[in-house]
Amino acid sequence: MRKSICLVLLFLLVQAAVAQKKSKKDYLVTISTEYGTMYAVLYDVTPRHKANFIALADTGFYNGTLFHRIINGFMIQGGDPNSKKAAPGEPLGNGDVGYQVPAEFHEKLFHKKGVLAAARDNNPEKASSGCQFYIVQGKVLKDEDFAVAERRSGRTIPADQRQVYKTVGGTPHLDQNYTVFGEVIKGVEVIDTIAGQPRGSMDRPEKDIPMQVKVEKMKKKKITKRYGYKFDV
User: Fold this and answer.
1) Which residue ranges form the domains of the chain, and what is each CATH number?
2) Which terminus of the chain, N or C, has less C-beta within 10 A?
3) Does the pTM of the predicted model rise above 0.85?
């Protein structure tokens, strides 16, 4: 019964996201931590993930959850509801909301530094967790790194994306295997700070890193003027 209700809710959220695509406004996502604040936008070409994240954030779901898994040079992960009251050292990463979000891969979306992407288990459809996400830190790649990345991802990396990986950095071996659905447009340096914190077993930070997440509807022109982001996906 719970799964059926979640699927109906997800369907309604998708319809809302499709309608949002033609709007002159969009949502600004603010992720606040003691190490700084990140501002992000979510992509229209991944409507299921966008609508799902907005719906959860709007209810305060993410407030108090931890960045429970950090790997310097790779990513920071959070959104596990079990992390809100987790004891020190308790293994995290298995909490969920009772449903998955179907994969939404897009050729223009890739794992450059700063993107938001959905965590998932090893299900064959590559469907995403209904709540857990990660933010890419990655590394700057050299020409010789791409052969390994392409072999792991099973795709040929386009020239323009290669250039981003060689200058901004990222994790190309995850491309088309995990859904990318947004990006940090200000506060990217916060990712580096969080990723560099001391960590213990299962890559959990030794000191808890809770987040506060809010979404605010704002004119796209205002977002572009304030943060320099151009809405093209």
Assistant:
1) 2-86+94-219 (2.40.100.10)
2) N
3) yes
